Amino acid sequence: MLIQEKKQYNWKPIIKAFEAILGKNGVVQRREELITYECDGLTSYRQRPAVVVLPRTTEQIAELVKVCNKYSVPFIARGSGTGLSGGALPSENSVLIVTSLMRQILNVDLDNQRIVVQPGVINSWVTQTVSGAGFYYAPDPSSQIICSIGGNVAENSGGVHCLKYGVTTNHVLGLKIVTPTGEILDLGGQVPEMPGYDLTGVFVGSEGTLGIATEITLRILKSAESICVLLADFTSVEAAGASVSDIISAGIIPGGMEMMDNISINAVEDVVATNCYPRDATAILLVEIDGLDVEVELNKQRVAEICKKNGARNVTAASDPETRLKLWKGRKAAFAAAGHLSPDYYVQDGVIPRTKLTYVLQEIEALSQKFGYQIANVFHAGDGNLHPLILFDNAVPGALEKVEEVGGEILKLCVKVGGSISGEHGIGADKKCYMSDMFSPADLESMQWIRQVFNPQGLANPDKIFPTPRTCGEAANAISMKKFPGVEQF
Amino acid sequence: MLIQEKKQYNWKPIIKAFEAILGKNGVVQRREELITYECDGLTSYRQRPAVVVLPRTTEQIAELVKVCNKYSVPFIARGSGTGLSGGALPSENSVLIVTSLMRQILNVDLDNQRIVVQPGVINSWVTQTVSGAGFYYAPDPSSQIICSIGGNVAENSGGVHCLKYGVTTNHVLGLKIVTPTGEILDLGGQVPEMPGYDLTGVFVGSEGTLGIATEITLRILKSAESICVLLADFTSVEAAGASVSDIISAGIIPGGMEMMDNISINAVEDVVATNCYPRDATAILLVEIDGLDVEVELNKQRVAEICKKNGARNVTAASDPETRLKLWKGRKAAFAAAGHLSPDYYVQDGVIPRTKLTYVLQEIEALSQKFGYQIANVFHAGDGNLHPLILFDNAVPGALEKVEEVGGEILKLCVKVGGSISGEHGIGADKKCYMSDMFSPADLESMQWIRQVFNPQGLANPDKIFPTPRTCGEAANAISMKKFPGVEQF
């Protein structure tokens, strides 16, 4: 019973009910104010919500969701709106539940390395809260100074340090959620070992389709004694890729291992001027080593040797916080910097087995030539998570469609070599039509079972993740809802 | 529609159908042969299956399950039968699907650090297969030389090295499963970053209630350059507990950190004679440090200093493989050794926040006094995973019931301090009545939703994990199946 046809709603009683829960200040309905909310970081998709609500508590969210259920109105949760797959894109005639007033740190338990936060808390605040005591929160998306933990949970966000420490799902111990029907549930707990089905794991990355997280218990880690960032400068992508493989094969697990190509390097230097990146390099690797002083010192030497052996022209190492931050600042600004190279850019997010790096980069170059768009490559090389940036001008008629086709070809390439169509940005509105390339009808069907038991009216973030005939045409038709006995009962 | 009442089946056509799939040799039905299968490692629960089948392929399992569905016969998967919570305990009039003929290593991909195995493959074979190339598989239950990977997946097994490296779920990348209705699905994939709902995570630890894993893709890790095991000898449990906290607080993450009390120490020395454990110690800590040589050398010193500071009488370190194995052999034999202290023993498995260690051990001692049973304590101290061994004589009428009561009190204690009723052994048949102490009716209900969509007839391992009125009385009555709109449709 997913919402598929255009509906007309009588908004008056709905708004009145919302105002009764939140007061007039908590309900935004003026057209000009709603514009802010018509897209997230994926700006090529836009849809104005009918109304925006700004709750402050779990109970308020539960009440709001119950009102949505009563009137069968779709609702979408939104944190800071920095997502890159359109996961927080409103649907037509929908309610946008924005968590940006829910920014309390609810509990800090350093002894047990846990912190409990509301969903609107900004990612970098978590580390700021605990860093004085020598702890940090590992997942660090490039948008970490603005993105929210709630959004990170929804999209299972990654970051440059996820190679060694894992993505968001590896750091969420427990969740309080409001289900799509307005019930309050506790998933997981305060210790990682919880019996029964791992619903915390299912919820993380479910992109708002299984409910809204209202309290999040995160694992925090002890800061390393020493951190060093190496910059290795290569004249070929193959040499950089071989170094990545060799570093991992040597048993070194860097905190992060990132590759940037020549286009990205120059874009970053033009915009943020780190003055650290060699503009004539074909590719650079940024390798962060963390651990004990002695360990970092030794691994630094080993990484440098591996890069040199593979033909690096130069390897420099920075241990002082200022230079380290500068090196990362460039990497983290890479997407924004691409915006200066052309009027528009489209960020893709795919994963490949590390061993296929060189082949896939050659194929991406071939796509660039074939379609006539420059493609900058910035990626989490250690875990094979690519972020090709396709540069284009949206003012040219038909350009967006063509660029989306290139993006699609890149995803199909990732699937072909045994990878994935999303590493950390989620599927959202953007990639749902590619889910059928990655999963069989039966596999997708089994995910739908879970969606439907939690989200029986289909009101929680409809039109996301899963392909539908309306939006994806034939790709979605392959998914028959009658295949399994368990589903016929719906 | 879970199976709740006693049913009579006409086994003739069922057996005939099984024989058509497997041949006569693949179907075991002689009473005396079936005795082997009437319990797993939890020997206090016994139930003979009606028939045992021995498939060799995914397709055969799918066919067998379809036959079970056709005749509405419950079926239970079993690997090596070493589980300690009765997860592989047959139900009355059930089919036991035993995977011990499915022992092929299907694929080894060292470059991408993956291995694909059949479910009957023995845990320690995985490491044996890849160790020559410098890799290993991290989860290592004490039963690793006999337990199967399929069983590990079902129970989300742990082991002494899970403190640093995580339990089974952290090492399973993908699964081929046969669903409870006989469909073949692929969950997860070859890279960790898979979009959509994390069904792999839900399946791992679902104890056979969501289907049977038939191919398992595991992550393998690079072996550490150096490994050292420290043995610290304490005259009080508090001092050992304080050392555990201080080691973690210092930012050291040992490969494993185990505590054994005086009773366990002596039981182990009586039986396996490591000649390493001090018989007069109140508690010992075994701390394994792994990593680079320099790192291990430094952390060894730091751990020793912390233990000494907390009053350790003696700290010894072993880096040579022989002594290291001897130290671990004692720990891994602790359960079996307890069997020599008294006619019977009951192993409990609970988790507590590390900071509550001293308090909880005092309370366990009080329970021991109150009920008059000796309790030996052996546990994964680093992650707060307790394994109290309650020593008793099952020949004494009523003893088992009393011991189960003690075990239940320990679980309630774990929940009270914010922990969990299972760290690594699963819920199975043994602990389902305690699920209501840990989860609210709504939380349990949401797990049931998932069970019911995958397992609509309730045939896959019924009577496990979830409390039912028939077996748990009032505890289960709290769970109403009508609470949520999504469930009324079943």
Mind sketching the topology for me?
2 copies of one chain form a homodimer.
Chain A (H helix, E strand, L loop, with lengths): L10 H12 L4 E2 L2 H4 L16 E3 L4 H13 L4 E4 L16 E4 L6 E5 L4 E4 L5 H9 L3 E2 L12 H7 L6 H4 L6 E7 L5 E5 L10 H5 L8 E8 L1 E2 L3 E9 L2 H13 L6 E6 H10 L11 E9 L1 H17 L4 E5 L2 H12 L1 H5 L5 E4 L2 E2 L5 H15 L3 E6 L4 E8 L6 H18 L18 H4 L2 H14 L14 H4 L1 H4 L7 H4 L2
Parallel strand pairs in A: 2-4, 3-4
Antiparallel strand pairs in A: 1-2, 5-6, 6-10, 7-11, 8-9, 8-10, 12-14, 12-15, 13-14, 13-18, 16-19, 17-19, 18-19
Describe this protein's structure.
Two copies of one chain form a homodimer. Chain A is 36% helix and 19% strand. The first copy, chain A, has 19 helices and 19 strands. In chain A, strands 12, 13, 14, 15, 16, 17, 18 and 19 form an eight-stranded antiparallel beta sheet that branches. At the A-B interface, strand 9, helix 7, helix 8, helix 10 and helix 16 of A face strand 9, helix 7, helix 8, helix 10 and helix 16 of B.
The computed structural class of chain A is alpha+beta
Share of helical residues of chain A: 25-40%
The fraction of residues in strands of chain A falls at: 15-25%
Task: Determine the most extensive contact between two protein chains.
Answer: A-B, 92 and 91 residues
Number of helix segments of chain A? 19
Oligomer: homodimer
Number of DSSP E strands of chain A? 19
Report the uncertain regions of chain A: 480-490
* Average of pLDDT of chain A: 92
